[in-house]
Amino acid sequence: MSSQRNHDGLVLVGTRTPYEVRKFPTISPEGDEIMVNVKWTASTPLDLHQADGGLLVEHPMRTGSTGAGIVVECGPGVKHFKVGQRVFGYAHQKPAWKTHQEYSTAPEWVWGQIPERFSMEQAVTLPENLVTAFNTISTDLKLPTPWPKPEGYVPPRANEHILIWGAASSVGQLTIQVLRYYGYKHIVATASSKHHAHIKEIGASEVYDYKSPTVVGDLLKSAQGRETPAFPLIVDCIGSQQGTLAAISKVAQSGSTVAVMLPVIVKHASDESAPEYSLDASTAVEWAPGVNVAGVRTHFYWRNDLFREKLQTEIMPTLLEQGIVKPNRYRIVEDKTLLERAEKALNAMREGASGEKVIWRVSNE
Ligand SMILES: NC(=O)c1ccc[n+]([C@@H]2O[C@H](COP(=O)([O-])OP(=O)(O)OC[C@H]3O[C@@H](n4cnc5c(N)ncnc54)[C@H](OP(=O)(O)O)[C@@H]3O)[C@@H](O)[C@H]2O)c1
């Protein structure tokens, strides 16, 4: 009789086709790996780009990049975790690591321990985009993120104005909180007006409504009297050709660096037609000469040694515990089965999440 253990996991089998549940082997951890019983996941726009746009997908593909759960087994070389601990992480690189399955087996460096006073539901709102925030600040804006942060640390470019476009997104909220932590004080943001109070509370000094027809003029006017470029560092937290880049290209001036969340959405999905994407933000719109455009690829954050070793095991739990980053607001999608919850969550993302994460249970119990 075979002793092989199996568990349920979601796969994408086609574009604009419902998920399927399949059985996968439950892999015992080796070396520095841990096995996590995944209790919760948070939907991301990438789930939608993959399901509806087939972005970078080879079918059939296991899905899920963010999870929170319980450690059930540890490899012999594991240093940070014990069986029974509650963990959260951004675990996406290999099929066995994915989080839309009951058990994920992955290296310990993609997980962190959840501080006691936070629930798994709160914790699961953070990992993917906290990693994105650090990676964007370091790799694309080229600002240092020293850890531990030295006492009295004053960052380079501390007095420059940083524009965070689409700040109500979870990327935006976490980027603002990490920039504030490192000492940046002139953070200017755009968001729908209903989110302005919250965005100020987490660290922006000024917030503008990106839906206002005068937003570009208002931003440039606010910078009158300053040296150019008005906004030397800009983060586009959305990456929509018409929805964000068209306006941002009018604010960016020679010398500005613009970090754009990829993919660039060239055409948004509708009931009748598939979305279209581009992975080149530098040609998506016409930029003023001298603007430096960087396309953010968080997928490769692990190439930074500090991030691989400490970002999730140490930095993420510490920032949460110390209240430096706050969990995102969230909405729970409930239903009887993994498949039903996953489909319902994807529909919630299609309708659009505003200022909140859509979270749902993976394992039934
Ligand atoms: N390449 C990478 O490494 C990487 C990593 C992470 C995320 N991303 C991408 O980054 C984007 C954001 O991800 P997320 O998880 O942060 O999304 P999210 O939290 O689901 O974003 C939702 C928010 O987006 C805002 N928004 C939508 N359209 C906007 C527009 N035209 N202008 C300004 N704000 C707009 C809305 O703001 P209001 O409520 O104010 O309307 C809403 O609150 C996604 O496209 C994702 O795929 C890329």
TrEMBL record:
Name of the protein: Enoyl reductase (ER) domain-containing protein
Organism: Xylaria flabelliformis
Domain of life (superkingdom): Eukaryota
Family matches, as Gene3D superfamilies: Medium-chain alcohol dehydrogenases, catalytic domain, NAD(P)-binding Rossmann-like Domain
Coiled coil: none
Family membership noted in the UniProt record: Belongs to the zinc-containing alcohol dehydrogenase family.
Keywords from the UniProt entry: Oxidoreductase
CDD domains, sorted: enoyl_reductase_like
